[in-house]
């Protein structure tokens, strides 16, 4: 779990202890340690229109994407931190099109 | 203009910084891939999967089509770029779409879709920030993952009529402008990084979320994708997702990796595009079909880093572009396989082990008709004629040699030729 | 053990000393070395220019009856090794031969000059005489091991820009790459720049001479011979 959090934070993600007001909340299924990403089966416009996104998820992890594939049945999305770009002179900026902030709240 | 001329122009203007930025990315990539102990084994596996895909391409197309249809996805097969563009036009006309948002897709660039739709009075908005920058500048991307890597923040500010050139400010300004476009478009076009034959899924990777925003806001989602993007099964996808972002930019994974299957409340269409791929499968350049467009070969290429991508003039530049462009137009792009020192770096970073050095040499053979060299090859078999050459070399006055090797002499001193050889004359 | 010396044609024409030093080094190790005098060119310039050639077959004919073929040029060796010929796996670059077959090391441990090693692409990425930064493999460098002592390497292990026909087609970028390589190495204040490929070194030297850099550039065989000669 420590390694997952480290990788999630490298991707600009946060760890939430409460879900602050104004954050759009979705549900995550499990985390991928090596990638610092969360598997989410919800898929709607609010997830991308909102400025702050919270992912409620259990403390369930797989080691890497090869293991993750064993658990995937239907469509969905892996999310790793907030939307980002480095298209203006290789300078990393959060909030390219989607959320500026993205946090995980463990249940 | 040929590569060497455009390269001089670019380097003098922007070369050192371009080189430095891309080398930084190369270093991030090196660090990221070294976090995976079995990286080299992953490359071997990925290469084997892709070789299987090429061998079984036709069957996989069939399997994918069947499974995608089961998911409720409409599937088209376009043999040529014209067919691809016509299908999209028809779909957009059905939806009465006058504006379409498009996320990054090298395939639509290959098909000149933007120009085609513009002629048919449909506006295409490229939503990837880098692609939007080059679109507004009236250019093409100079790098397949970092489309605007050749631009400066001041140039970005200029196209937005801004005086503030702070990257964060400019990025958020672009976000605001593009958000308007997202909310007023009628359809979304995306590419796909992978197609999963056993499930009928299409997989799209982005950092910005532009593909997802476009898809979730529109009633029509069109996926334009080359048939070379097929993978046999979802198990294989795991391997490629471990590798793609690390090898491209040094990220552990892209921010968003969306697996598109059954559509909800919208129509999803996949256009499988051949455009020469089946023909390429039967040629000596079939290994180029393994490419997953990670762009690592561009980023590492010491020539690309200094010449910039536009010097290649083809939509896919760098080492992989030098293998693809001459197949599209042999005469126009015959200089590209020579814009290369055969250093082998592309081959070593390639996640699917395309044998670049061998392929670039084959491509040189494909474009070359050098008669003098052919005669030289014949005569050099005998050490006696070789000695004759040596003698001529030693008797030629230096100014004449300088003229004969003018590209060398322009920038460097010509070496002195000693009177005596080791194996004597 | 029957050894043949391959004399790369460009070395024969432009710097015959390298062939001589290589021969002296091999003889120093009491090897029975022959120099086939009917050898010409391994075919590299043609292969790399996209011209069909049968020169590697001629190479095979000339050298196939030897146990090892040693060449002071990693680019020629890598061409031969890629050909799937009888000679392919018994043709060695000089340092590779010293390392793998003679198992010699630390020859230049007490060399009085500070050496910068230019890892040429053919040596590093084609023959894997060292670990290229692109791969996830443990660090090693056979040439450094053979030399021993404190050897400097460039910060970037990228190409110097020679590239044979590339230097004639893209003189400017070729120059820039060479300039960058020199700057990278010179920043570490070496007394001498060396490498296993004279083609790269000749390219770097021609830039240093034109730009007025005061740096000694010599082929690795010259340094190795200097060291061996000293200990005699």
Q: Give the CA-CA distance, first to last residue of chain C.
A: 23 Å
CATH superfamily of the largest domain in chain B: NagB/RpiA/CoA transferase-like
The chain-level mean pLDDT of chain C equals: 96
Secondary-structure class of chain C: alpha/beta
Count of domain modules of chain C: 2
Our count of helices of chain C gives 12
By oligomeric state, this entry counts as heterotrimer
- Measured by DSSP, the beta-strand proportion of chain B falls in 5-15%
Measured as a percent range, the helix fraction of chain B is 40-55%
Number of helices of chain B: 21
Tell me the domain tally of chain B.
Answer: 3
C-alpha Rg of chain B (nearest Å)? 24 Å
Count of individual beta strands of chain B: 10
Mean pLDDT across residues of chain B:
96
Task: Give me the side-by-side strand order of the main sheet of chain B.
Answer: 1-10-7-4-2-3
- State Rg of chain C: 17 Å
CATH class term of the largest domain in chain B: Alpha Beta
CATH fold field value of the largest domain in chain C: Rossmann fold
What does this structure look like?
- The complex is a heterotrimer of chains A (107), B (425) and C (232).
- Chain A is of the alpha/beta class.
- Chain A contains 3 helices and 9 strands, in the order αβββαββαββββ.
- In chain A, the strands form 2 sheets. In chain A, strands 1, 2, 3, 4, 5, 6 and 9 form a 7-stranded mixed β-sheet that branches.
- With 425 residues, chain B is an alpha/beta fold.
- Chain B folds into 3 domains: 1-25 and 295-369, no CATH class; 36-279, NagB/RpiA/CoA transferase-like (Rossmann fold); 380-425, no CATH class.
- Chain B has helices at 3-34, 39-55, 57-70, 81-94, 106-110, 113-119, 129-136, 153-159, 167-184, 210-217, 234-249, 277-281, 296-300, 302-307, 318-328, 345-349, 356-367, 371-379, 383-395, 398-404, 406-409; strands spanning 74-78, 99-102, 123-126, 187-190, 194-196, 201-206, 220-226, 230-231, 256-260, 267-273.
- In chain B, the strands form 2 sheets. Chain B has a 6-stranded parallel β-sheet, with helices on both faces. In chain B, strands 8-5-6-9 form a 4-stranded mixed β-sheet.
- The radius of gyration of chain B is 24 Å and the shape is globular.
- The model of chain B has no long low-confidence stretch (mean pLDDT 96).
- Chain C is α/β, with parallel strands linked by helices and 232 residues long.
- Chain C has 12 helices and 8 strands.
- In chain C, the strands form 2 sheets. Chain C has a 4-stranded parallel β-sheet with strand order 2-1-3-4, sandwiched between helices. A 4-stranded parallel β-sheet of chain C has the order 6-5-7-8.
- In chain C, α5 (74-81) links the parallel β3 (68-71) and β4 (91-93).
- In chain C, α2 (16-28) crosses α12 and α10 (171-186) packs across α11.
- The interface between B and C is large, with 71 and 68 residues.
- β6 of chain A pairs antiparallel with β9 (256-260) of chain B, so a sheet runs across the interface.
């Amino acid at each position: 779990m420590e390694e997952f959090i480290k990788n999630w934070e490298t991707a600009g993600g946060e760890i939430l202890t409460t879900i602050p007001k104004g954050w759009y909340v979705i549900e995550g299924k499990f985390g991928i340690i090596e990638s610092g990403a969360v598997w989410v089966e919800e898929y709607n416009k609010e997830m991308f229109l909102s400025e702050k996104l919270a992912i409620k998820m259990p403390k369930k992890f797989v080691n890497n994407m090869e293991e993750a594939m064993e658990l995937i049945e239907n469509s969905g999305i892996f999310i790793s931190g907030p939307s980002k770009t480095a298209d203006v002179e290789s300078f990393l900026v959060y909030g390219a099109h989607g959320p500026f902030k993205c946090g995980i709240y463990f249940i | 203009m040929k590569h060497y001329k455009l390269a001089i122009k670019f380097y003098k203007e922007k070369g050192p910084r371009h080189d430095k930025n891309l080398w930084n990315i190369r270093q991030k990539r090196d660090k990221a891939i070294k976090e995976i102990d079995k990286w080299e084994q992953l490359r071997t596996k990925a290469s084997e999967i892709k070789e299987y895909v090429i061998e079984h391409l036709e069957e996989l197309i069939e399997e994918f089509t069947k499974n995608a249809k089961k998911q409720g996805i409409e599937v088209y097969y376009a043999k040529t770029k014209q067919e691809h563009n016509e299908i999209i036009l028809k779909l957009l006309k059905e939806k009465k779409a006058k504006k379409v948002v498009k996320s990054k897709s090298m395939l639509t660039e290959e098909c000149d879709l933007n120009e085609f739709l513009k002629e048919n009075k449909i506006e295409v908005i490229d939503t990837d920030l880098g692609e939007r920058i080059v679109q507004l500048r009236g250019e093409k991307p100079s790098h397949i993952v970092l489309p605007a890597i050749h631009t400066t923040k001041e140039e970005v500010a200029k196209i937005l009529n801004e005086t503030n050139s702070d990257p964060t400010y400019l990025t958020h300004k672009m976000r605001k402008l593009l958000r308007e476009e997202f909310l007023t478009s009628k359809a979304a076009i995306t590419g796909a990084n992978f197609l999963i034959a056993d499930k009928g899924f299409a997989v799209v990777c982005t950092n910005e979320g532009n593909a997802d925003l476009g898809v979730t806001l529109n009633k029509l989602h069109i996926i334009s994708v080359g048939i070379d993007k097929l993978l046999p099964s979802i198990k294989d996808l795991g391997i490629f997702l471990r590798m793609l972002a690390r090898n491209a930019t040094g990220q552990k994974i892209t921010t968003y990796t969306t697996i598109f299957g059954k559509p909800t409340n919208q129509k999803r269409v996949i256009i499988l595009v051949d455009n020469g791929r089946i023909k390429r499968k039967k040629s000596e350049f079939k290994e180029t079909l393994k490419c997953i467009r990670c762009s690592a070969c561009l980023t590492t290429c010491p020539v690309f880093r200094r010449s910039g991508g536009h010097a290649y003039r083809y939509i896919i530049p760098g080492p992989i572009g030098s293998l693809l462009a001459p197949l599209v137009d042999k005469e126009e792009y015959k200089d590209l396989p020579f814009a290369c020192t055969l250093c082998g770096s592309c081959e070593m970073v390639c996640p699917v082990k395309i044998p670049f050095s061998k392929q670039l040499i084959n491509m040189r053979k494909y474009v070359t008709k050098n008669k003098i060299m052919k005669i030289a090859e014949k005569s050099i078999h005998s050490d006696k004629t070789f000695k004759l050459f040596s003698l001529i070399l030693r008797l030629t006055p230096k100014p004449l040699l300088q003229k004969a090797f003018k590209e060398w002499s322009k920038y460097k001193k010509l070496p002195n030729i000693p009177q005596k050889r080791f194996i004597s004359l | 053990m029957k050894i043949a010396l391959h004399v790369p044609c460009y070395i024969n024409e432009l710097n015959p000393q390298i062939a001589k030093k290589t021969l002296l080094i091999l003889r120093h190790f009491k090897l029975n070395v022959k120099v086939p005098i009917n050898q010409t060119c391994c075919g590299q310039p043609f292969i790399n220019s996209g011209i069909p050639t049968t020169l590697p077959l001629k190479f095979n004919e000339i050298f196939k009856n030897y146990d090892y073929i040693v060449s002071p040029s990693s680019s020629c060796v890598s061409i031969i090794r890629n050909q799937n010929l009888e000679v392919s796996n018994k043709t060695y670059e000089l340092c590779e031969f010293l390392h793998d077959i003679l198992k010699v090391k630390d020859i230049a441990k007490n060399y009085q000059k500070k050496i910068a090693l230019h890892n040429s692409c053919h040596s590093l990425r084609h023959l894997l005489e060292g670990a290229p930064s692109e791969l996830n493999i443990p660090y090693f460098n056979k040439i450094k091991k053979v030399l021993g002592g404190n050897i400097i390497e460039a910060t970037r292990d990228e190409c110097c820009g020679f590239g044979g026909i590339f230097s004639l087609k893209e003189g400017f970028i070729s120059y820039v790459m060479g300039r960058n390589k020199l700057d990278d190495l010179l920043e570490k204040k070496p007394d001498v720049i060396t490498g296993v490929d004279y083609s790269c070194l000749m390219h770097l030297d021609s830039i240093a001479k034109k730009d007025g850099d005061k740096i000694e550039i010599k082929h690795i065989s010259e340094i190795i011979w200097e060291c061996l000669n000293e200990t005699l």
